[in-house]
Design goal:
Keywords: Iron, Iron-sulfur, Metal-binding. GO terms for molecular function: iron-sulfur cluster binding; metal ion binding. Its cofactor is [4Fe-4S] cluster. This protein is 41% helix and 20% strand. It contains 8 helices and 9 strands. It is globular, with a radius of gyration of 19 Å. The mean pLDDT is 94.
Length: 261
């Protein structure tokens, strides 16, 4: 039995095909200015690439910001529930999830059964999200894919004190004019992002195995900063941390169909 999970985020769309044991295929594309059309196209292209039609998929579950607007889905599910299901499948011993996406960040406490025990979320300020990091990369004229390693290449850092993404961007420009190297600024930016999400997470606490997910988890500089602020060098990120929501949605679809049979 094959199910599909579709995570329609603010920045990217993730699609996963799942057979109950493993990911069969996955895709990631930008949400763009027409997220509904882009989601449908990505979904149908994946099915075609795997020589499948919609009738070959037992259930399609949508999650993320756009979950209620994807008409090809059979069901919609909360992103908190889906991310937890996906991470628990990949890391069965997980007890805390730190997730930083394009426009929000969240920390989830996970029960021994792999379910949501508690969570806290920030979706009102961009300063601790992937959008802010993209803004900084653009200001520094550096590819987003390279800034993580660039920050790890130096030991110096600087303080980013602004609590607002707009003011923080202005602060970055000011540091550049003062001659502060881009690598040092990036290290300060990542420490600022980590400080915000860890402060948020203190409301529910950090315990057990901690896993870092979301698109920002692909950035090794942010991962290292989070390890430092939590005080836990064992915090890890899955190989494809941006796929956990879509994977969890597919898993929930598989469980739903199995229970109804």
């Amino acid at each position: 039995m094959i199910t599909c999970g579709v995570d329609i985020g603010s920045r990217t769309i993730k699609v996963v095909l799942f057979d109950g044991e493993k990911i069969l295929d996955s895709a990631v594309t930008l949400s763009g200015s027409a997220p509904q059309e882009n989601t449908e196209r990505t979904y149908l292209e994946m099915l075609a690439a795997n020589h499948m039609t919609r009738s070959d998929v037992a259930m399609t579950v949508a999650t993320g910001y756009g979950r209620n607007y994807f008409e090809l889905a059979d069901k919609a599910s909360s992103e908190i529930i889906c991310h937890t299901a996906g991470v628990a499948f990949l890391c069965p011993n997980v007890r805390t999830i730190i997730d930083i996406g394009g426009q929000d960040s969240k920390v989830v406490q996970v029960s021994e059964q792999g379910k949501v025990a508690d969570f806290v979320m920030n979706d009102r300020c961009a300063a601790g999200t992937g959008k802010f990091i993209e803004m900084v990369a653009h200001t520094l004229n550096m590819p987003v894919e390279e800034i993580g390693q660039a920050a790890l290449s130096c030991n110096e850092t600087c303080e980013i004190s602004s609590m607002c993404a707009v003011f923080a961007e202005s602060e970055v420009v000011g540091l550049l004019h003062r001659g502060i190297p881009a690598e040092v600024i990036l290290r300060g930016v990542f420490r600022s992002v980590a400080k915000r999400v860890v402060s948020l997470g203190r409301k529910v606490g950090f315990q057990g195995q901690i896993v870092f997910t979301g698109g920002v988890a692909q950035n090794p500089g942010v991962l290292e900063a989070i390890r430092e602020h939590v005080g836990d060098p064992t915090i890890t990120a899955p190989c494809s941390p941006q796929l956990t929501g879509a994977l969890g949605a597919a898993i929930i679809g598989h469980q739903t169909v199995s229970q109804n049979q």
